Amino acid sequence: MAQSEIGVTLEKTVNHLVHSGIEMLEYIPKSGKPLPSVESLKAIVELLRAILFPGYFGKTITKPTMLAYSTGGNLEQLYELLSEQIHSGLCFNFKEDSDEIKAKAERLTLDFIESIPETRRLLFTDVKAMYDADPAAKNLEEIIFCYPTIRAMINYRLAHQLLVLKVPLLPRIISEMAHSETGIDIHPGATIGEHFCIDHGTGVVIGETCIIGNNVRLYQGVTLGAKKFSLDDHGNPLKDEPRHPIIEDNVVIYSNANILGRIVVGKNSVIGGNVWITNDVPPNSKITQAKVVQEHFYFGSGI
Questions:
Q1: What's the whole-number mean pLDDT along residues 287-294?
Q2: What phi, psi does 81 have (nearest 5°)?
Q3: 111: closest CA among 141, 148, 86?
């Protein structure tokens, strides 16, 4: 192919993209404005996993004396990386960078670091819930090393805490990392109690305004989603409107169940697989599919 033809094609495409994208200019990041880095956030998640479960993630810990040294080094590195990324996230909400924004990012980073012990406590309850619910698990160590739910819950609980601190953008990036890694999609805005278990996990979806109590267990393919949502005067969805289910304590939801809308599944209930629920479920209920109807056909009759 002649170089002149290649040049003409490239130039024509550039002009088309530039002129057709004029309306997008306000969304293109301005030169010099700090942007969050997906690679840095991946490093932050790996650091946090090593801090929360030392030896299971990150470097091997062979001596008790190494724990303080390793944790201190990881926390120091975390502070540097996370304050930089929170600063970048905050800059999305302001037209110009400033010393005030940088100071706010540093304060939020310290607030987040102070929350890590409580996050670890919650995650240990999740590990215990997984072990108690799965006879195939030989010990707690296997749960931490092998189960995708724990990786997803680490990301979720970290992202949720950042959202509580009103850090923009970063929580969503971190939760989507877990979605890509595990196939488990948990919005950081969801509220999830202690001893939470997702068995297998692939295809689980938990929406932004879900509220999940303690000792709840989900199986693969469960959707806690929205049925419908309200629109504003311009036809756009209203933000932050409660539109996802409330799952009370001690509920078990089996595979591929769809629970949709702002409904309540009462405590101690069991939801069978492949059901579709759009109304409240009273406490202590058991919801299953209709019984299978079996008929016999001979030589293709009735088909």
A1: 77
A2: -70, -45
A3: 86
Summarised one tens digit per residue, pLDDT across range 116-127 is 999 999 999 999
d(CA 5, CA 60): 57
Mean pLDDT calculated for residue range 221-245: 86
Please give the structure tokens belonging to residue 266: 């009462």
DSSP line for 60-104: ---SHHHHHHHHHHHHHHHHHHHHHHHHHHHHTTSSS--HHHHHH
Residue 42: half-sphere exposure toward Cβ, Cα within 13 Å: 6
Q: Which whole number is the average pLDDT over 55-61?
A: 85
How does DSSP classify residue 273? T
What's residue 183's pLDDT?
Answer: 96
Type of residue at 273: G
What is the SS3 string spanning 116-178? HHHHHHHHHHHHHHHHHHCCCCCCHHHHHHHCHHHHHHHHHHHHHHHHHCCCCCHHHHHHHHH
Q: Is-contact 169 87, C-beta < 8 A?
A: no
Task: Give the per-residue SS3 of 25-65.
Answer: HHHCCCCCCCCCCHHHHHHHHHHHHHHHCECCECCCCCCHH
* Domains along the chain with CATH numbers: 34-183 (1.10.3130.10), 190-303 (2.160.10.10)
From 10-24, 151-165, 270-284, the region with the lowest mean pLDDT = 10-24
Can you say whether the dihedral through the CA atoms of 81, 86, 89, 90 is positive or negative? negative
Listed in sequence order, the residues at least 6 apart from 222 whose beta carbon sits closer than 8 Å to its beta carbon are: 203, 204, 205, 253, 254, 255, 256, 257, 258, 259
